[in-house]
Amino acid sequence: MRAEKEDTSRGADNRRLHQPQGTAMKLYHFPLSGHAHRARLFLGLLGVEHELVHVDLANGAQKKPEFLALNPLGQVPVLDDNGTVIADSNAILVYLARKLDRQDWMPLGAQAEAEIQKWLSIAAGPIAFGPAAARLVTVFKAPFQAEEVIARAHAILGKIEAQLTGRPFLTGATPTIADVALYSYIASAPEGNVDLQPYREVRAWLGRIEALPGFVAFAQTPAGLRA
Ligand SMILES: N[C@@H](CCC(=O)N[C@@H](CS)C(=O)NCC(=O)O)C(=O)O
Q: Which Pfam families does this one have (predicted)?
């Protein structure tokens, strides 16, 4: 694992959040992981100073005892907030929103929280098994049926297109962690041969997220429709 200094952005409210000396959050990530990008994007949008630790997935660093001690599932991302260790991208989004009391990104209230949870489930279900899986086929030679995962991607993109019609962000007028959770694997869907051209509202939504202060781009690969 290799630590990198992250030049953190200004964040959505144009200020940097500095942790006390020596206690910056650490994000264990891999640059081509959309799950890891999801967490990194939120840190950027929040303007939280953090250190990136590169986990070399290509060489199996995620299955070494040192990493398994942080996340027994052997996957990135993992956040280490001065000894509080959170694994799983969606769990990290929830943790950061609540720890930093950012109700703008994750509102309180039974209905609002249930609505957010629904989108986190969509990120972990149809998005992971649709556009994310399609990209795994082209970028990492994963043994999935390309046609099947591409069809799944279009099925969920159609639903998201409908949701975004007349709504700038997934749950309403302002962005929440629901948008952060879905961004990375939808933005990178063309790498898995999932064409976003039919989805005008989805493409406009991607643009709105990319225009947010503190936005951090997901590394592109020349795969699929981007080849
Ligand atoms: N549910 C997890 C999924 C994380 C995940 O699938 N991570 C992948 C990279 S995108 C990984 O670490 N794969 C390495 C492995 O499973 O060995 C999350 O949301 O964080």
A: GST_C_2, GST_N
